[in-house]
Design goal:
heterotetramer, A: alpha+beta, four-stranded mixed β-sheet, four-stranded antiparallel β-sheet, 33% strand, C: alpha+beta, five-stranded mixed β-sheet, 27% helix, globular
Amino acid sequence: MTVFPTIFSITEDELNLNDVLSQITLPSTGAACFFTGMVRAKTTRGEPYQTDYLEYEAYAPMAESKMKQIAVEIRERWPSVEGIAMIQRVGRLFPGTPTVMIACTAAHRDTGVFEAAHYGIDRLKQIVPVWKKEMGPDKQKWVEGDYSPQAGE
Amino acid sequence: MTVFPTIFSITEDELNLNDVLSQITLPSTGAACFFTGMVRAKTTRGEPYQTDYLEYEAYAPMAESKMKQIAVEIRERWPSVEGIAMIQRVGRLFPGTPTVMIACTAAHRDTGVFEAAHYGIDRLKQIVPVWKKEMGPDKQKWVEGDYSPQAGE
Amino acid sequence: MSESMNMITLLLFATMRALIGERKMDLEIQPGSHVRDLRAQLSAQYPHAAQALKATLFSINREFATDEALIPDGAEVAIFPQVSGG
Amino acid sequence: MSESMNMITLLLFATMRALIGERKMDLEIQPGSHVRDLRAQLSAQYPHAAQALKATLFSINREFATDEALIPDGAEVAIFPQVSGG
């Protein structure tokens, strides 16, 4: 029986999408969907602002346990998903840098890889304990996000 | 005014997702969705079979012109999309190898990057003139796909 | 080469290239030829490919073209088997 | 340290860490304390953080916990500001 790989990590290292893809590509795998989030230099939704860099921190052991939970949720909803990878970078991250990544693979492109990756990034934002501090030309502030865990999550 | 990058190519070179991502990340970009298609070593949908390698060929100038057209279609449907990259590898490609890639970027994750990349890969399969010959342990054959262009496309 | 004929470049891919044994050829066609006329001309010239030619698609100057499309002088015409990659 | 007290490890992140000035502390709590009791205890001990503590979330042993959750002896408790990353 094939074991489907699940990779999750909180890391200070650069994300390498090529490496991640090869780690979640099995002999039966023909399709992958990735999402990556990057630090924006300038943001125009709402009040426009500029960013010099972000400081990310995570509650790492809990973050990894939440990532494991999200992988379970994905496999329940999309049983055709083969490999899953979730990586959150922490530390000082400059504009243009990928900070978070989720990738899902499957045999074919039409059995849920897009939906699984989309669900995964929404859940990562909701329940994985990661915080970022915005360092801009005029100020520094903690940024609000979509963090909205339910009790027991 | 910002010029949004559109990258398309037919190439014999290895795909490098990291390079592609940096080429379509602008100061305003915060989200990217990638799709990659890989050669499967074994396929179980329909009659199961094994693959030693695939030989890909393309009608390159027409393929690039179709990619350009798909980028225009994506920008019409999802005006928030910033960068678009489409790459098709050709030549002899072994199992596990990414052969085709589409990536779309935007400021945020909730304005269509997933839908744009999904649309893009479906259109690539439909209208970009690329053919593959399956080389397996017992046989070699040209593989049927989703190729279904309309006149004028 | 007759003065009254049009010249086109014909490109062949995948199974069509294998059947006809050429990647690219220069071809004379009657002025006013449509895709269906070229299909008939090729079927006559390569009888072993006649069956396969029925199911092929054509492009003219890198746009897909129906059987009714007129082929201009100097056109780049390609024959597409109905298989695709990914 | 009283024999009758429970010990917990408290982890602080982001704004809470900045306000209280610690990443991690060992803390005595009354046996039978719930999250709401810990919130009150911290608000009394760090009055300048009392306002911020009202809006924080807590986790007990790496699971999010409501105000009514009981804190077991030896628990790893974390205080979460309501901001998230990505």
